[in-house]
């Protein structure tokens, strides 16, 4: 049985990755050297990277999901350990990219506030 929640997340992250890749492509056509343009390029790349890693995570979850949801014993000398490590690497890279997006927002906001004159 297919988990509807997983399919919904797949669709959301797929659309988000398409939109962010389109933004990256459109920005590559316009060559601007301003620092604000570079920050927006980095932000779009981080959104793209985050959405792709989350898309891969949820598609692997959908493909590898079994009907029995009982936890399996993980032995760290077989294929189970490799699957767990790959799963954790994908999950961690998506989480780190989400955190980096928030940090970029904070830095960009700080620069905008610094430019305003009260």
Helix content: over 70%
Number of strands: 0
How much beta, percentage-wise? Answer: under 5%
Could you list the spans in which at least 5 consecutive residues all have pLDDT below 50? Answer: none
Provide a count of the helices: 3
Characterise the protein shown here.
The protein has 118 residues and is mainly alpha-helical. Helix content is 79%, strand content 0%. It has three helices and no strands. It has helices at residues 4-29, 35-64, 79-115. Helix 1 runs antiparallel to helix 2 and helix 2 packs antiparallel against helix 3 (79-115). The longest helix has 37 residues, at 79-115. The protein is elongated.
Fold blueprint:
Layout: H1 4-29, H2 35-64, H3 79-115
Brief summary:
With 118 residues, this protein is mostly helical.
Spell out the key features of this protein.
118 residues, mainly alpha, 3 helices, 79% helix
């Amino acid at each position: 049985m297919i988990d509807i929640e997983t399919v919904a997340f797949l669709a959301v992250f797929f659309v988000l990755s398409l939109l962010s890749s389109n933004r990256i492509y459109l920005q590559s056509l316009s060559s601007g050297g301003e620092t604000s343009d570079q920050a927006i390029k980095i932000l779009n790349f981080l959104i793209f990277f985050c959405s792709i890693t989350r898309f891969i995570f949820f598609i692997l979850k959908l493909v590898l999901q079994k009907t029995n949801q009982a936890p399996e014993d993980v032995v760290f000398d077989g294929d189970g350990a490799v699957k767990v490590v790959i799963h954790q690497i994908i999950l961690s890279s998506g989480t780190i990219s989400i955190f980096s997006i928030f940090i970029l927002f904070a830095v960009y906001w700080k620069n905008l506030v610094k430019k305003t004159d009260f």
